[in-house]
Amino acid sequence: MNIAFFGTSDIGIETLKSINEHFSVKAVITTKDKKGKRNKILIESPIKKQAIELGLNFFQPEKFDDNFLSQIKDCQMGILFSYGKIIPQNVIDAFKYGILNIHPSILPKYRGASPIISALLNGDLYTGISIIKLTKDLDAGDCLMQKIIEITPDDNNITLSNRISYLASQMIICAIEFYKDGLLKPKPQKGNISYTKKFNKNDALINFETDDACFAVRKVKAFAGYLDAFFYYNSKIYKILKASVCDLSATPATVVKVSKNSLIIACKNKSISIEQIKPEGKNAMSIEAFLAGHKFQCGQKIT
């Protein structure tokens, strides 16, 4: 079976490696290199880097024209995982078995770009993986296979993405084989449809006056390794990398408790205990290391 893999972000790396071990990956399709800070360097996608490491042919098409179709003419199936661009119908139809789309949610819940972040931000107890037939409509294709995944209290965007990445790499091998042999029958998605949005920096801002502590901690978990939840203090950005909810209450956006190894800030409801932090322009550090060089007092306003 000759496969074309469509992907961009690092969540698809394990799937690309797994497919390459079991089948023949004839083409890896990823997005164009992005400009780095101050446009000085170009940043390659994680999937492009992996394709180079595996010695695979990769393509970064700006449009899906006849030239592109000639590059995938020997492929019987496409696999897509976090590619980031809409695939036109003529490309889907170019494959004998179409394109299978791996989506990190239990569809039809959380169609769209950010299902893992959305699940963590909403405090969901579980999420999952859906393998569907790719169609022109966003994440709306018939379902071939699903797996429910528990979200543990310690999970954040990094740990949950890593777990989904590994499980998807195992599921897709079964899906390819079973679908090729006619053992998997596509079924329409069932349930209430919901959509995610593409999050930006403003979504990751923690406002101690308006956010309750539970939601603030969910932001820390949801945006870990991506935007990273943050707050402003003395006009500088402080990213919170790990935190927990504390039952103490006080005036929102004030320091409730401070010691050599503890910094607790009041929110709209309850408080947040910061455990790991990254001050602007500095490396990540434990709260103990941070407090060794920064002085706070109880009742102090954090603005």
From TrEMBL:
(6S)-5,6,7,8-tetrahydrofolate binds at S105, I106, L107, P108. Keywords: Protein biosynthesis, Transferase. This is Methionyl-tRNA formyltransferase. HAMAP family: Formyl_trans. CDD domains: FMT_core_Met-tRNA-FMT_N, Met_tRNA_FMT_C. PANTHER family: METHIONYL-TRNA FORMYLTRANSFERASE, METHIONYL-TRNA FORMYLTRANSFERASE, MITOCHONDRIAL. Its EC number is 2.1.2.9. Attaches a formyl group to the free amino group of methionyl-tRNA(fMet). The formyl group appears to play a dual role in the initiator identity of N-formylmethionyl-tRNA by promoting its recognition by IF2 and preventing the misappropriation of this tRNA by the elongation apparatus. Residues 2-175 form the Formyl transferase N-terminal domain. Belongs to the Fmt family. It catalyses: L-methionyl-tRNA(fMet) + (6R)-10-formyltetrahydrofolate = N-formyl-L-methionyl-tRNA(fMet) + (6S)-5,6,7,8-tetrahydrofolate + H(+). It comes from the Bacteria. Residues 199-294 form the Formyl transferase C-terminal domain. The keyword Transferase applies. Coiled coil: none annotated. GO terms for cellular component: cytosol. The keyword Transferase applies. It comes from Desulfurella multipotens. Pfam families: Formyl_trans_C, Formyl_trans_N. One of its GO terms (molecular function) is methionyl-tRNA formyltransferase activity.
